[in-house]
């Protein structure tokens, strides 16, 4: 077996050293009732060739987004990732190392995490960011729980524009951790005003920008309203590329930013693993969840990095920790860091501009299709269309013509008939104008 | 002038000082500044297609002002990260016996499979008809996990072990709620990993520690005394964090069940028994599995992971969304709490879980097969016991008898030497080995927890054992200075962690006044 | 017992000796034995599908006895080669200013493209209808090369520069033969790379050196005197190996042509003029292009390369097989000397040339475009002149005026210091830089030939310049011991090359009597 | 432009330091007549996304051998290469390093080349091997030229079983270097006896095993005959995997082995880059072409490696060098070394057995097709079939049915009508029995 270095001769030598007759003897503590001699009823070991054949067959049963014109978004976006990114994250020294517990031999990991924290802080306009969370949804739930700690309050106001999965994840935590949430209804047609629902029990207001329906808004006023009542503003970002083009949460007065970083450096991968971004203000640092890397000096006075403020964390604080997170999204954070550093200022801003231009072009083409109306005219790279019939059926029809048309809102809001005709459509730098024209033409056919 | 020139001052103002060179580099050990110190305005590491004419719809929301990201070319980026990588120790470079972390070989085949376009380039919200292969992967992986654990159900979405704990504890609370019972206390083994109490607290439970007995196992009598109608669950790890199998685990399970509570088993150490013992046969009600440990999915720098949770029949109905089920036209995804999933307790993350990890774990399982996985556990346990047996006279083992997949030592062998567990770890670094887990579990003093895993050769273990014998001898000879100074051969020596925590510097900020350009 | 244990004796019989550690490792610098010293009988790094029943048709020809290959598991193999790689310096880790080798950034995009199944998984003898895309790559690359050089034809099959030289010289001989002329002498510039004379000899020519003048260029008068009816060709490099452009190149070409000979230009230094000057406009008749230099195809450890040869009309008909041509149903491959290819001089290697390199080179050209390639030459020349200007007062430059893509120094600045060109190179290694080319070209004493390429930043050059200034100063201060001792910070210090050549050990052989197991 | 670090500001600084007004001024030595101001008539620079699209389009115009049942060999064989191989050869420290001129910082390259030399020597049964040649064909030509040097003779006898491209390459060198070759006619039906053609002017006899038609032979007697006349025996190997199953050249008395190493570690890649193997006897080492790595010690007495015996080479010996080769096939040699070390003794022997079994199975299936005869019954993983009609047409017909059927001998011997009906067929571990049955069935259809 190719992954196992021990030979039978060596196993015998080692058992002799240990002084037991067999490996089974080492399992002497296992209750007899749980002891099984026969191997499990599963296939035997296989070589690479066979495993590759089996998995390639399964892969072939999926339709890669890149193989057809594809316009899905709703929290996961298909961007072009430079070849350098995937090359570097596979370097063994990065890929097969773990949490940098021993800083003298993990300065590589520590430095890129420090760079990651800085990049996230810069693009969100916040003071400080952590070394990553699981994903945007879990980061959002952690943000609310952090706001509860900071404000010592237990009531969160949630925007109707927050991604449904993020809402559900937060609601799940609320139910079990015992805090309350007030959720506004999702309504793409009105600009909700949450200021009214903030009271002196409110720990935070959670909004998303651009929101689930694609709308871009200015939340400065809401921030003031929240602060006036002693509450925090939590801004969620689904499409991190948008921050190259729109005003960052930090400039709107956000206290916590929870975001999904997949768009930078990470493939779709059916929704995971992705990378949660988490940023806040300096004054709240000690209430943050997750790992933090800090700068320091070594015994020779040379600059170096270490994991720091770990007294917040589970391995020190146990039940009093700010979060139970341990393993996070390190390698996805590295992909993010590499891609972001390749982009740099001009590249990141340029990429955002390109995304907006493509989406804007596409919106014009689709809005021109009879019966189709564009709901929101202010958007970044994703927008909502109202169709004359249920969007789910339209999407199914378009799949048969070889177009992945977008996400029917009903997929995420199955129990809201009023949203059944809505279609979420996203465009990125990877969509050609030919793709867009094909989409428009075929949409017209199937309507 | 370019920030990297400035950055040089970070390590060569001393001139032939610490580094002994003008450049600050030392042969193949090359210093590297921060990305932000390599900035050159206008430089860029990508070339974008040109911008088509299109209506701008951002209006007043358009970003104003510079973000502050550095401009760097592709060659410099490749060099930057390559150099950083060279400052890391990794499984690929040597033994990484970090107890409780199961740092085993990560096969490259798995990386290749996860990158097939059919897996890496599919959107989670594509029509299910276009992702049947992906759902089949989830279904097959779930099948392997159920057979290996003997449990009837598995929740696939948790993103890591701690996330899986959350999933399990939420399912437990949901089950009690469904029965109209309110139980707010959770008993957690004293030796448990920090995530266990943290998770229980995150689910709104109060936590009470269960003491360990002299044999490093749960004190059954004490636990029984703690059990009561207010106890929702008991959280234990098996094999536990001392690397020991809980001999009385079935009695424990019976007592827990008798008290109307559920038995949460932390499965982080499943590698010790995979293919040999089924948690179901031990009375476990719910257990998370760290795919990034037992099933070797890489988690460089701290992640990503995946923490599927196997559930007993009583808890299965409460598993979180989404559920992948067999429908009439192939696989379907239940994303709403209705029908079979009516009692699902909610959702823990976006979409369907860590697909990238699922593909890798499945490739790993198929490669090993039933016979190979059984051998994995056997060799992991054999390697750990070989280390224990070889070192027990040189170091001090707190508990009698064979261990499972990891060997635990305490610091009694360092008594009065002035040398600490930390010092031993740092000396190992100079010897080219990654240290074991230090000071965990908390139940023994100055713990050194060594988990070699099954992918290490006898020769490597012999080398490691030989070095530890020599270091133990040196400690006893009182070579304190050597240990205090260690490591001396690494890119950085011991770092000031106290200082780092006192005035945290958690991000780069542009230097106030420009540093002198030392690039001559 | 396993050979790797034995192997330990190779570096730790000394115990805390040279290495200062018991293991022999030094922190992240890890010692690694030979593969053959990791052998464990019966261990294997692959799992093969089972053998189907089939008639054995080997009979008496079946191999008998053991081959002697070591048995090693996959985890150990990954670690073995990862550790070896860490003992290398590379473009990815730092400046690699090896004169005449154009060590520039190798983009990863090109690696990705070359691995597309449509390129990597096609057989050279598939029906041409199934490889039209591959032939299109050859055709497009040929087009770029023809436009960039201004030459009408290109032979694509040569596997490297020297192979291209062979191709070119054979074409020249074939052309003379076709005219019934026998010319057996080839004039080669004194400063030429060793492959030039070696190639000429391999084609059956006698070689005569053309002297250089005081300006480091070909001595035109001397060359004219050497020209005659017996001269088949003149081989020059332009820019030449002193990094200088041959100012009188057109006069040279005219003289060569007037004498009825052909002008072979070694194009290894094409990077200096690509996108700016066309060899055709300089009177060149034939020139090879190192795709692995100018067009950045990686050639780790010494290869592979690719050396397409551009040809003037007079030589084009003699280009070797195969030829890729436009036919009525798409591309066709002429593999036989007939039709258009009737005069083809033969064949230089199997199949159609280095397709893997073609894809990479084309991706590189498309990425740069006409504008980018022009900038490549500009920046390569700018970087070299920046180094020349910055160091000419600290070191000694043998020739006046600006250089092209590489800066040449001689060892006059080391006169009477006791420090040699070699010593400077070794001291640079400790400073974290790869040395320049040493002692080549032969026309100057103790040559140091520095080629930065266009993919190095100003900051890196400033750093390199600063270090060389400091080292030059130290040499003049007479710090001879430091230089003699260098390098001291590398995995190995200076190696005994004389000893290696006196009693060559060119392979591992099983040790006579087993080495003592030092793994305790 | 992403690959160019210099900015315009920096360029200006540098020009100032140099003391010239512009970059053009640095090109002052270029003759005016050759000076061009306008950029060339070629497309402008493009980003990754566009280059990927363009090249993916070209790649899509080819039929990957792995996408259909495929049975081509004739010197290039499709084997399964473990993922580890491609991962490691892409490590920057290997891929972007060059010839190890500075041993202190290239011990990694030097050690694997030493391991490569050892592996090649072991499998061929020879004393010593070099650090690689371009490919099998050029290695064969070099072998003949080396034999000429060793024997101071200039007449080589070439077997009719030598791969046609190798014959042509050798003939081309012979023509220009001025030595003579006597080529036996290719005849798959008779066992040629070359002993007769050896005389006291013969420098070497060149045979291939298995030969071009797939035949496996014992050349011990020929070796003796050659040695008796003071000539050398050069044995060429096309399919290096065969050495895991058949008697190696070294045991037959070969003096030089020239081989193609592609089968181990390297993809088809349309025929290049591949890796030439070159091995010989100790006594001839100083007449060898190519690079050699040798073992030595460093200043501290520690074992290490260096390039050695370079006085044979062009950079030292110039026109007196044993060869003009400089750049070789380093990275392909690394792929070979890694794959071979993964295989090890059991894997290499097992792989060879698997190849032979698959080919043997296939031969039985195809020989059962009416009108088809198997020409050679003693073969390794490739054999020759005589078809009732020209093989080229049959292969074309089979391509249309989605089978890559093998290599028509006429593709390589277009001017030998007597070979027109012959088809070369190879099978490796990558062919499934289903592939074989499909091939047999479709062959029957098209005949
Ligand atoms: C015993 C134990 N339990 C739980 C965990 C948490 O798992 P994860 O890090 O995947 O969240 C770990 C991981 O370190 C562990 O060792
Ligand atoms: C000037 C010159 N000519 C020819 C060559 C030979 O090229 P290759 O190594 O690709 O055979 C080189 C390469 O080192 C060279 O520098």
Attribute tags:
heterotetramer, A: 447 residues, alpha/beta, 4-stranded antiparallel sheet, 14 helices, globular, B: 520 residues, 7-stranded mixed sheet, 3-stranded antiparallel sheet, 33% helix, disordered N terminus, binds pyridoxal-5'-phosphate
3D structure, described in words:
- The complex is a heterotetramer, with two copies of chain A (447 residues) and two copies of chain B (520 residues).
- Chain A is 37% helix and 13% strand.
- With 447 residues, chain A is α/β, with parallel strands linked by helices.
- In chain A, α9 links the parallel β4 and β5.
- In chain A, α4 runs antiparallel to α11, α6 runs parallel beside α11 and α7 crosses α8.
- The model of chain A has no long low-confidence stretch (mean pLDDT 97).
- In chain B, α3 packs antiparallel against α10, α5 packs parallel to α10 and α6 crosses α7.
- The longest helix of chain B has 37 residues.
- Chain B is globular and about 70 Å long.
- Classes of the chains: A alpha/beta (447), B alpha/beta (520).
Task: Write a concise synopsis of the structure shown.
The complex is a heterotetramer, with two copies of chain A (447 residues) and two copies of chain B (520 residues). Chain A is 37% helix and 13% strand.
Largest interface: A-B, 218 and 209 residues
Average pLDDT level of chain B: 94
Oligomeric composition of the shown chains: heterotetramer
Instruction: Please state roughly what percent of the residues of chain B sit in beta strands, choosing from under 5%, 5-15%, 15-25%, 25-35%, 35-45% or over 45%.
Output: 5-15%
| Proportion of helical residues of chain B | 25-40%
Task: Give the termini distance of chain A in whole angstroms.
Answer: 57 Å
Order of helices and strands of chain B: HHHHHEHEHEHEHEEEEEHEHEEHHH
Q: What's the gyration radius of chain B in Å?
A: 26 Å
What's the story with the biggest beta sheet of chain B?
Answer: 7 strands, mixed
Write down the Rg of chain A.
25 Å
How many strands of chain B? Answer: 12
Q: How many strands, what sense, and barrel or not for the largest sheet of chain A?
A: 7 strands, mixed
Number of helices of chain B: 14
Broad structural category of chain B: alpha/beta
Tally the helices of chain A: 14
What is the percentage of strand-forming residues of chain A? Answer: 5-15%
